[in-house]
Amino acid sequence: MVKKIDHIGIAVKDLNEAIRFYEGLLGLKVTEIEEVPDQKVRVAFLPTGDSEVELLESTSPDGPIARFIEKNGEGIQHIAFRVDNIEEKLADLKSKGIRLIDEKPRRGAGGAMIAFLHPKSTFGTLVEICERK
Ligand code: ZN
After folding, report:
1. pTM above 0.85, yes or no
2. Do 40 and 62 form a contact (C-beta atoms < 8 A)?
3. How many domains would you assign to the chain?
4. Quick one: which of 24, 99, 112, 115 could link to 121 by a disulfide (CB 3.0–4.6 Å)?
5. What is the CATH number of the domain that holds 57?
6. Averaged over 91-96, what is the pLDDT?
7. How far is the CA of 96 from the centre of ligand 1 (A)?
8. Does residue 92 register a pLDDT over 90?
C-alpha cells in the first residue's frame, strides 16, 4: 500500500547554491547531507511537513543525475512513494506488466530501501518506491 509521497527528487548542478534557495528563501532546513557513491550523487534532505525535498547533485560527469541535467536541465527528476512492503509492491507491479528499473530493492540515501520503475511504464515520470523502517 502506498502511504504518502515520501520525497521529491530534484536534480541540481550546485547543491550548495540550491540549498541557499531552499533554506534561505523558502525557509526549509537541511537535516542531512549524504553521499551515495553507488549512484554518484550527493543528496541533501529537507523535510517539509510529512514529505521531503531531496536535492541531488552529481559527483561525476557520467552519473545518472549529470546525464539527466544534460538532457533535461535542472529540475524534478523523480517522485518517491513510500510503501509499507517494497518487495510485495515490486512483485505486484511486475506481475501487472510494469517495467522495473530495479528488479530488487536496493539501499538508497537515508537508509531507505528503494526501487525505480521505468518511466515508459509510468506516463513519463521516473517513479521511486521506498520503504523506511
Ligand atoms: Zn529518491
Report:
1. yes
2. yes
3. 1
4. 99
5. 3.10.180.10
6. 97
7. 23
8. yes
